[in-house]
Write a structure and sequence with these properties.
- By secondary structure, the protein is an alpha+beta fold.
- The chain contains two helices and three strands.
- 37% of the residues lie in helices and 21% in strands.
């Protein structure tokens, strides 16, 4: 049975976290951090969410965001994290999950 969809409450702030698969680092150097920030900027413009704060740690990240109407956290995070996974796997010649 699939899980229930996340609840959307207009004007609410959502704290979203992502962690490296098996506790591995998701950011290895400054270029990785900068790439993730560029992806955040790109998808922030595309989806129109408000980003209040963020924390990018070597093995995890946290985002405090407010969604625009009609958008879901799942859609946003899928696009950001899948784009970053493609970059990360290509850059470090690896395959598989990053998050």
């Amino acid at each position: 049975m699939p899980r229930l969809p996340r609840i959307y409450i207009e004007g609410s702030l959502y704290y979203v976290t992502s962690m490296g698969n098996n506790g591995e680092n998701i950011f290895r150097n400054k270029e990785d951090y900068m790439t993730y920030l560029e992806l955040l900027k790109k998808y922030k413009e595309q989806y129109g969410f408000r980003l209040f704060s963020f924390a990018l740690l070597p093995d995890s990240l946290g985002l405090l965001m407010e969604l625009s109407e009609g958008q879901t956290i799942s859609m946003i995070m899928h696009d950001i994290n899948s784009s970053y996974t493609k970059y990360f796997n290509s850059r470090f010649s690896r395959k598989g999950h990053v998050f």
